[in-house]
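Record type: ASSEMBLY
Status: queued
Input:
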Amino acid sequence: MSAVLDHAGGHAHDHAHDHPTGWRRWVYATNHKDIGTMYLLFAFTMLMIGGLLAMGIRAELFKPGLQFFNPQLFNQLTTMHGLIMVFGAIMPAFVGFANWMVPLQIGAADMAFARMNNLSFWLLIPAALMLVMSFFMPGGAPSAGWTLYAPLTLQMGPSMDAGIFALHIMGASSIMGSINIIVTILNMRAPGMTLMKMPLFCWTWLITAYLLIAVMPVLAGAITMTLTDRHFGTSFFNPAGGGDPVMFQHIFWFFGHPEVYIMILPAFGIVSAIIPAFARKPLFGYASMVYATASIAILSFIVWAHHMYTTGMPVTGQLFFMYATMLIAVPTGVKIFNWLATMWRGEMTFETPMLWAVGFLFVFSMGGFTGLILAMAPIDIQLQDTYYVVAHFHYVLVAGSLFAMFAGVYYWGPKWTGVMYEETRGKIHFWGSLIFFNITFFPMHFLGLAGMPRRYADYPMQFADFNMVASIGGFGFGLMQVYFFFFVVLPMMQGKGKKAPQRPWNDPDGRGAEGLEWEVPSPAPWHTFETPPKLNAAATKVVG
Amino acid sequence: MGTEAMTTLKSSRWARVIGGLAALAGVPAWAAVNDLPGGPAVNQLNLHPPVSQIAEQQQWLHWVMLIICTVIFIGVFGVMFYSIVKHRKSVGHKAAHFHESLGVEIAWTIVPFIIVIGMGAMATRTVVAMKDTTNADVTIKATGYQWKWGYDYLKGEGEGIGFLSALDAAQRQMSDNGTPEGDDYLLKVDNPLVVPVDKKVRIITTANDVIHAWMVPSLGVKQDAIPGFVRDTWFRANATGDFYGQCVELCGKEHAYMPIHVKVLSQADYSAWVQGKLKEMAALADDPSKVWELAELVARGEKVYQANCQACHQANGKGAGPIKPLDGSDIVLNDPATQINVLLNGRNNGAMPAWKQLSDTEIAAVITYTKNSWSNQTGKLVQPADVVAARK
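Status: finished
Output:
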């Protein structure tokens, strides 16, 4: 198919040994670059499926009254949109980035466990099939919300079991991916690449991987208990047998809150690579960025019940979780300030990756501020489970994680494929997405403040205008991502376009992007750093 | 702080600006709909006008937070945009090379830390006030059902009143037909919850099936209703009128169709309503001295069983897990005195709850039903008078 797929580049000579071609190359894949590519394509496919469901949701909410779907099917759409985006799109996409970039950035030949890497990718396929196909099971897909609150899950049809099984498999895949990343980072760094010289993307992923290992089993426990409640007569969460539905929420959010940082920390890593490159100035506070990331990760374990203010916690509980949650603003602020200080008095240019990174900063911060507002328990009593919450988490997950990933694709895409994307197209994609994103989600703040509950198939007529605006924005945002695939991704994969230089983001005098990934040619050869490279003092360049 | 002024500001000018922009963009306004007092306003931009002290505090806190966040946002991103404009290569700016400054890092850790702790401190008083449900004048239990609300007045004036409150059926039909109309679309119920003005009303929430949540934005309350558990919240409405809310915890297919309507009446009107409602209920109630025939008592008992017992003891009377079977039970078959006692007082530390809130007729009926259902075909019956005797 392409430069990257049949690796036409300058390495046809390095094949003393054999490796599978055709379909075997992908099914038996052990190469971190091939597996990374598959992860990214898989995640994009899921993004499109989840996006299609979102289009369904926005079509139904375009006008008050039911037009397209009955409320049951509508609930299936919201539930599956959430599950597919979180577990199918965002998480695998970041693992794809890690697969491609971690070995390149630390000067390793490959991931530590190449065959486990293959398994952790290929497990995703049956899991995703099971999740998506659950729409065609009797009773349709699960419709209890992506949070899977008991005892509503106990009322679901057989598709709930398929969903639980799929999540288990995806969880196993994530844990294997995390172990691989941790072992690779801790054991396979090139000599001289000390931990505190490592690129921030590797740091954020190292911390994320620990978070994943800590909390994926917790989710597995929660959904296993749901499964046994459904089928084997246990009553963990079933009040009719003495179970506690609130306990499910505690367990779920003990997973769920670290999970949201799992979905944002690698994004911080990508942005931390891009901003210094385009400001032509080193990152302002490398060490404090590492400490801030670690602080966020640690705090993420003690704030889970801010998702549960309305369940009726004791007053001390509400106060504890309110203060703890607000504290997260501190390390997050440190990160934002460090990025700004990096830009300050730099020599900035605004190619597409930088646009996405700056767009990320601006829009993600809005989500951060609404998070601070939501953290305040008395205000949350008004806003919990309304569209304000929907607006908040799309500002951090779409404008946060997704925008950072787009930044990453434009930044590292030339290295992956050996082809430059077309700058105008990247800019169209950025500005279109940014504008449509805000048209979609900004009015949702107003809807939430006015009390429109989330997960509603129909709503009072006073909410009609803002819903219509949001729907129009949503359709636009969806179309921009289709544009991205056909006009940016596909041409790069097919090798159409200007050939990428080895260092596309460096001035002739060498200023710009730093890191070992720019020490290898574009496209990156199939095998890189087969022998450990000798590094300069800053561990940013290969010297002999 | 001028909450009121700000509220007015938002509802008039900004609404018009936004409305105008929407019109310019060619978005059709829903000419047919007006603001619903106590419910949502057309294109409402902020929280509902508060009708309780807690709601006022929530609104005040929200304004303060919004202002602080906006100021910081403008400050921080003012710096960023200044930098974007001035420190770019295309205007010939040359990169500086400073980085790492412990002092700066400490400063921008400590200052936000102080700000967020200050924010928390502002809210603490309200959190404590929200959770103080003691000394209520009226206590009402709100029970979430799929998909309606049940209200039982447990204490205070109106004690003993109980009714169900469901969405107006015509509106559900409109929703299906895709032809919504009316300012109270999806908010109109058959029986609103009625409460007195200026009295502390404690709402105890629970649910019958799955988790629901009881919300009335104007009164500043939102409380999950959790099956098997009771939670509580409170409000003191400082104005009469109609106030609307909706279920806010996903509870299945008809989640969008179980609204909440609270009618706040003056003390005199409330007393009159209570008197009327109690008379109405007495008229509907059964005379406990009536002697029933087996067939009609079993038929009545079946309804009581389905509404109250079936969730645990199952339709086939065989129970499940720790739930004792009724089918073939020795007590059910042969020991009416113990069975009445179990229903009135519960058993096993409340694993079987007490059902003394049911009427004498209902208890007699459901006992008779269990004695004459499934394989239990005893032909025996328990009269309401037996229950009356056992209650003493």
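Annotation: The mean pLDDT of chain A is 93.
Annotation: The two ends of chain A are 34 Å apart (CA to CA).
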